[in-house]
Design a protein that fits this description.
mainly alpha, 2 domains, 74% helix
Length: 110
Amino acid sequence: MKEIENINLFSVLTEVEKLEDSKNKFSNTFTDMLKNEIDATDEPEVYNNIRKLVYKYKDDEKALQIIDEVVEALSEGATLSEILLIAKDEIEYPTPINVMNLDEFNAPKH
């Protein structure tokens, strides 16, 4: 995979844009693959990888804004900062539906 490591992201994007069509075949394929990659990663690893990125760029405000923008693009509007604050609030003050879901998830299997 060394050949992939040295590829410029913008160059790749301009290449794949040639594959876009009115049926959204490429965008649907890309989105499905991205979702599958995220789903294949366990929750603690996703969080820890995001956290490592933030710590890596903690002194670079522009980089932190870009991370927020990428998450916002993936989530249809919520930035990483907002998601972190909502998750913090949910842990500190769980909503009844989430408590019920956790109870159901943690219930012994028969």
